[in-house]
Amino acid sequence: MGIGKKSKNISEIAEGKTKESVGRAVGNERLEGKGRAQKVKGKVKQVVEKGKDTFRH
Q1: What Rg value do the Cα atoms of the chain yield, rounded?
Q2: Please, what's the b/e burial string for 5-41 (b: 16 or more CB within 10 A of its CB; e: otherwise)?
Q3: Which pick of 10, 13, 25, 49 has the fewest CB atoms within 10 Å?
Q4: pLDDT of residue 57
Q5: How much is the pTM?
């Protein structure tokens, strides 16, 4: 996995966690849901990239 893609996926996961936490803190279910979805999206992308690396080597 390229460094750029890895850092982008990690930052997406972190941003999702932040949105989820803020949404929970202020009682905004929509923001909390968006954060949870973004976090999952980043994790899925990371798994896909790791899978690509496995088949390349």
Answers
A1: 13
A2: eeeebeebbeebeebbeebeeeeeeebbeebbebbee
A3: 25
A4: 67
A5: 0.82
